[in-house]
Specification:
The protein is mainly beta. It is built from one helix and nine strands. The chain has one domain: Sandwich (Immunoglobulin-like). The chain is 11% helix and 34% strand. The strands form two sheets. Strands 2, 4, 5, 6, 8 and 9 form a six-stranded mixed β-sheet that branches. The protein has a three-stranded mixed β-sheet with strand order 1-3-7, with no helix packed on it. The longest helix has 14 residues. The relative contact order is 0.24.
Length: 123
């Protein structure tokens, strides 16, 4: 049976996205950043003060697509200063805008449904 070239290309592309790269080492999570492991954030809850930012650091060999939401389902941000969808590859960081509204917010990774973070913003 002959496979169309497009199927082989798709298989290679998917394999490249989901397989962890074997080169370049993974950097340690910077101080005061929320790290990302293969299927989880380095913490399940983070508490910050109004006016602060949050830095996320991908300290794994896997890609993560993070944004506001829960269980891999992104939500439209209301008052959260978060880009709706951020792709982070190995060793990349992302810093949110300033969190000005006290409350409890949820962050998730669309690639890993079990990867959820509760953000508590206090005055």
């Amino acid at each position: 049976m002959v496979f169309p070239k497009i199927l082989i290309g798709v298989a290679l592309l998917v394999g490249g996205i989901y397989a962890p790269p074997l080169s370049a080492p993974v950097h340690a999570t910077p101080a005061n950043a929320v790290g990302m492991k293969h299927e989880g954030f380095s913490t399940e809850v983070i508490t910050i003060r109004q006016g602060q930012k949050i830095t996320f650091a991908n300290s794994s060999r896997w890609i993560h697509i993070i944004g506001p939401g829960n269980n891999a389902h992104l939500s439209v941000p209301s008052t959260e200063p978060v880009t709706p969808r951020v792709l982070l590859e190995r060793n990349q960081t992302y810093t949110t805008g300033v969190w000005n509204t006290p409350g409890t917010y949820l962050m998730t990774c669309t690639v890993h449904p079990e990867m959820n973070l509760k953000v508590i913003v206090k005055k």
